[in-house]
Sequence to fold (405 residues):
Amino acid sequence: MSSSETHPSERLHGLDALRGTALLLGVVLHASMSYFPVTIWIVPDTDNSPVASAIFFAIHLFRMTSFFLIAGLFGHMMLKRRGTFGFIKDRVMRIAGPLAAFWTPVLAAIIGGLVWMAAIRNGGSIPDGPPPPPLTLETFPLTHLWFLWVLLILYVAMMVLRAPFAMADRDGGWGRFVDRITGALVGPWTPALMAAPLAIAFWLAPNWTPFFGIPTPDTGLVPNPVALTAFGTAFGFGFLLDRRRDLLGRIERLWPVFTVIALVIGTAAMVMVGGPVPELAPVTDPNLKAPLAAVMALAVFASTFAVLSLALRFASGYSTVRRYLADASYWVYIVHLPLVIVGQILVVNETWPWFVKFGAVVSGTMAISLLTYELLVRHSFVGRWLNGRRIPWRRRPDAELAPAE
Fold:
């Protein structure tokens, strides 16, 4: 039996590990932005390299589509297990609650970093700047916590779209039909099928910058259409995939195919967007935009299914380290961005090579985040709030084997 073909009550360790990895890679992604060969970040460093932008490009291709695909699968799993009201209660507590509680202190810390960096550039004094824009639907700064807001939108969409089908599917006919369609979607052709809506969204986007792929919906309460298309497609596929858990084995066995496609198309995408020294102007030539949209969309979902299949193939067994990092990843992602900014500011004037600064920022951020997780979160009520359970200081041997949600 394939390592991913498990009983529905067993924990999907590979998917849990990938979900945690996607969140933890946010530390690497944001840390790399200081060391781009072109200025894009609030803490630009004079020590830079095209390698940093290549790291960003590779991570950005698959990170959040992978996260939302797994979120859709786990969302459907929880809905089956807890029912509608139990699902809503859990998501309000563990998604809406942290967004509401942490948004203000995180934004304040980011603003503090901006002011600090501005003072450094101004010789130690804080320069006068323009007043911030008024908060509107279009300008609301979600910061890196935008993923929680988009998750809530997708959960609402899931409940609304599912309701009429659930009422009409008394004999299971609709469900069996949908399951057959899902089965037909899974094969070597899956990345191309999933990429088609995203390619159209890229092509229709008026100010699309190909290097950044999916525009991050970190500003505004109405996510941009490209992000909604990409993340909604991934989330919906994950939702359907939980109904056909047997298909995880098929995806796992396709890992060599998905990996080769991802490497080839991902490399082609990087070349087409200008290489590791990115061209950051929006593409305006329609003859160039169409092939760019198609290749970038395919690169996004080819890399997504490559990492999904690799996680199923090589990380489906239980690992204490992977499980710990997966549990910690939610907290790490919430607190990491202010820590990354502080780390970048602390080393900005050092004469170290860029990769030493980059490593120091990543390792320092991870060390502080994991230390605070262990001391303040994991064994406290905050751990129960974020992860659905509190791990006692002396836990039972089977405490790590609870099903994922």
Summary: Confidence is low (pLDDT under 50) at residues 1-9, 397-405.
